[in-house]
């Protein structure tokens, strides 16, 4: 999944921005009004927000808050607004703002295919140069195989060569080594990637007790090896499966052991792959063969694309604006980390790296008035507690990006709509904030964050930017859910205030 700062120049775009929010507003909700009193002025709003921040349901957690007017920047409420705290996936607000401002909403990722084609045969290798497209999947590789065939490719006398020079060799983002698990949300990053560098593993029960469980891997590529020690047991026994993935030589090995019931229909679990380029390359080889293109060599190797040759074919991604809608609504760590390296390559020359990309982000933050030493940003996704910002900093990034005429509509469109999509789809039930709040969520084991914009149901020119950061939550069952409900009520108070 793939300009500089300027203020809003007129009413038309302001109306466009708010209309995008207000169009999802629900009808009057009497139930919500009974739960959340309507603040009549800034003082009563401050009292109500303060009461929620002090709720015993937060278990004594630290609560940082800032609310400001989107148009004027006037602060309506602040509480520990300059305290640095872990913000989890609210870090993606900074990543997305920088990507839109530096690369632009219309930026497209390119994957180029090179080879000397004569009489239906590529003489030598098919060379693929990747530029970090984070949206590629197996279906795209199938489309690419068909496109190459339509351009006359029937045979490749050599094999597939991968040019991965667009990025440096580091594949795991900073802080990702904090934990050793291999789940998809800690993905490897490469210039040639598919399926967000995760592989789907499904385990179904066999027909009879004692049979091996049925294990399927998607997409099929020849890159993933499976060691299956899961057996089928009689109905009535509990399922219990353990599995892990690890790089072994040039492959990712999935090891499974445990038991599943007869006839059990499993769900698909996603594990990280160890070699993004090989995963891409071997899947491509399989799909080229499936398309009827013969290859002289079925393995893949690294190499260099010719600098002056015209490519046989270039696959282009969707515009960045569309990709960021997925990134923010689904909170994709993979796309966020890929963007950091892409920005490093585009702005600081190849190969892209996390240090280069984070330097580009720091430059963007300085333009927004936020000094590099004032915050801590270790990666692009917000995973783990080394990414620390203040409520004022996040609110400033939101406000200034939403005031930038060149990126504001695309940036607003990335934020999940309360009660409708993304990570807010199942929230705001029975709350007046439904459809009128657009915000990025963030969650770690002791952190709940919500930062975004609240719209008036009556006056399209009135909007409030907010950042609510809850940290140091006690590790108790249900505590994250309770904290989420509190911050949702905070955002709903803003909607009530605007609609008074």
CATH architecture of the largest domain, please?
3-Layer(aba) Sandwich
Give me the number of helical elements: 12
The CATH class designation of the largest domain is Alpha Beta
What structural category characterises the helix and strand content? alpha+beta
How many domains make up the 3D coordinates? 2
Can you tell me the residue ranges where pLDDT is under 50 for at least 5 consecutive residues? Answer: 1-23, 25-34
Largest sheet descriptor: 5 strands, antiparallel
Q: What is the tally of beta strands?
A: 22
Shape: globular
* Share of helical residues: 25-40%
Kindly identify the CATH topology of the largest domain: Beta-lactamase
Structural descriptors:
single chain; 500 residues; D-tyrosyl-trna(Tyr) Deacylase, Chain: A; 2 domains; 5-stranded antiparallel sheet; 5-stranded mixed sheet; 24% strand; disordered N terminus
């Amino acid at each position: 999944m793939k300009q500089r700062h300027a203020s809003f120049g007129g009413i038309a775009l302001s109306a466009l921005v708010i209309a995008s929010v207000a169009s999802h507003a629900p009808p009057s909700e009497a139930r919500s009004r009974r739960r959340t009193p309507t603040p009549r002025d800034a003082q009563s709003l401050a009292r109500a927000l303060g009461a929620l921040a002090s709720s015993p349901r937060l278990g004594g957690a630290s609560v940082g808050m800032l609310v400001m007017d989107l148009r004027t920047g006037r602060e309506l409420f602040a509480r520990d607004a300059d305290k640095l705290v872990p913000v989890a996936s609210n870090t993606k607000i900074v990543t997305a703002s920088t990507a839109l401002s530096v690369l632009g909403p219309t930026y497209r990722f390119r994957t180029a295919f090179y080879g000397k084609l004569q009489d239906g045969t590529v003489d030598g290798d098919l060379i693929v140069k990747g530029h970090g497209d984070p949206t590629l999947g197996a279906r795209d590789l199938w489309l690419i195989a068909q496109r190459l065939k339509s351009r006359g490719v029937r045979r490749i006398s050599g094999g597939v060569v991968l040019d991965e020079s667009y990025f440096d060799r580091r594949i795991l983002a900073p802080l990702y080594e904090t934990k050793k698990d291999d789940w998809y949300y800690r993905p490897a990053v490469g210039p040639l990637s598919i399926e967000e560098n995760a592989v789907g593993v499904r385990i179904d029960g066999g027909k009879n007790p004692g049979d091996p469980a049925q294990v399927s891997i998607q997409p099929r590529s020849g890159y993933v090896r499976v060691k299956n020690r899961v057996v089928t047991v009689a109905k009535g026994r509990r399922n219990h499966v353990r599995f892990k993935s690890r790089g072994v030589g040039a492959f990712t090995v999935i090891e499974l052991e445990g038991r599943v019931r007869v006839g059990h229909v499993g769900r698909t679990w996603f594990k990280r792959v160890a070699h993004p380029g090989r995963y891409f390359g071997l899947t491509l080889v399989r799909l080229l063969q499936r398309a009827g293109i013969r290859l002289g060599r079925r393995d893949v190797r690294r190499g260099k694309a010719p600098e002056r040759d015209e490519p046989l074919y270039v696959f282009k991604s969707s515009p960045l604006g569309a990709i960021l809608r997925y990134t923010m609504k689904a909170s994709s760590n993979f796309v966020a980390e890929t963007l950091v390296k892409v920005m490093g390559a585009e702005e600081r020359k190849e190969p892209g790296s996390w240090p280069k990309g984070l330097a580009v982000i720091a430059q963007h933050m300085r333009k927004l008035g936020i000094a590099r030493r004032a915050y801590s940003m270790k990666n692009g996704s917000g995973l783990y507690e080394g990414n620390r910002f203040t409520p004022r900093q996040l609110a400033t990034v939101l406000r200034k990006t939403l005031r930038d005429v060149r990126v504001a509509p695309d940036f607003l469109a990335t934020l999940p709509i309360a009660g409708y999509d993304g990570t807010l789809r199942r929230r705001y039930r029975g709350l007046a904030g439904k459809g009128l709040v657009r915000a990025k969520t963030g969650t770690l084991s002791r952190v709940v964050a919500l930062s975004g914009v609240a719209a008036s149901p009556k006056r399209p020119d009135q909007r409030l930017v907010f950042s609510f950061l809850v940290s140091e939550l006690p590790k108790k069952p249900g505590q994250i859910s309770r904290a989420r409900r509190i911050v949702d009520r905070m955002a709903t108070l803003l909607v009530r205030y605007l609609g008074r």
